[in-house]
């Protein structure tokens, strides 16, 4: 009879570990989803700002059609992207196109002095900072989640419960640009 109680006790402990592991992984997964939603909100704000920026630049640099078209294509691609990997890649292309668009202001002093352009560029800069902060939060949540599904005892149950590894919101090809030391010329 005491062997039965011991087996029952071990089963209860294993079930409690499974419940605890499952609940922790659900919480971590929800945190990743919430962090991605935060990024998505910031990206939608950036997507909404882009047409105004393009229209402002178009008034001063109409013959820079290729750059303007690249920004619009990149924006449309970013808006239709699904999943963190696709969104990350599309947003990296959009960031590059926006960088080229903002760089046009250097060639057009009237554009650079335009109050509307200055305000839009300032809003874009603020959004870029918010997106960077949201990416850091998302990547931290993904790191905690991925660690959680690999640690014991959750590793025993994670696959069985359908928890799989999640991808980071990576900088992709632009990582070398971000890590490069800026050059200052006078």
From TrEMBL:
It comes from the Bacteria. It is found in: Membrane. Its main location: membrane. Keywords: Membrane, Transmembrane, Transmembrane helix. The keyword Nucleotidyltransferase does not apply. The keyword ATP-binding does not apply. One of its GO terms (cellular component) is membrane. It is a single-pass membrane protein. InterPro entries: LemA-like_dom_sf, MamQ_LemA. It holds the Pfam family LemA. Belongs to the LemA family. This is LemA family protein. It comes from Bradyrhizobium neotropicale.
């Amino acid at each position: 009879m005491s062997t039965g109680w011991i087996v029952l006790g071990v089963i209860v402990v294993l079930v409690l570990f499974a419940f605890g592991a499952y609940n922790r992984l659900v919480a971590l997964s929800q945190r990743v989803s919430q962090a991605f939603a935060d990024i998505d909100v910031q990206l939608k704000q950036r997507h909404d700002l882009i047409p105004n920026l393009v229209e402002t630049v178009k008034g001063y640099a109409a013959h820079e059609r290729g750059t303007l078209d690249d920004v619009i294509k990149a924006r449309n691609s970013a808006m239709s992207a699904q999943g963190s990997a696709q969104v990350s890649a599309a947003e990296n292309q959009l960031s590059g196109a926006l960088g080229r668009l903002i760089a046009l202001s250097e060639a057009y002093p009237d554009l650079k002095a335009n109050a509307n352009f200055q305000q839009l560029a300032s809003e874009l800069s603020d959004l870029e900072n918010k997106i960077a902060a949201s990416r850091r939060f998302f990547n931290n949540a993904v790191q905690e989640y991925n660690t959680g599904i690999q640690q014991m005892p959750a590793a025993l149950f994670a696959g069985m419960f359908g928890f799989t590894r999640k991808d980071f919101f990576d900088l992709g090809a632009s990582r070398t640009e971000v890590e490069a030391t800026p050059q200052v010329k006078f």
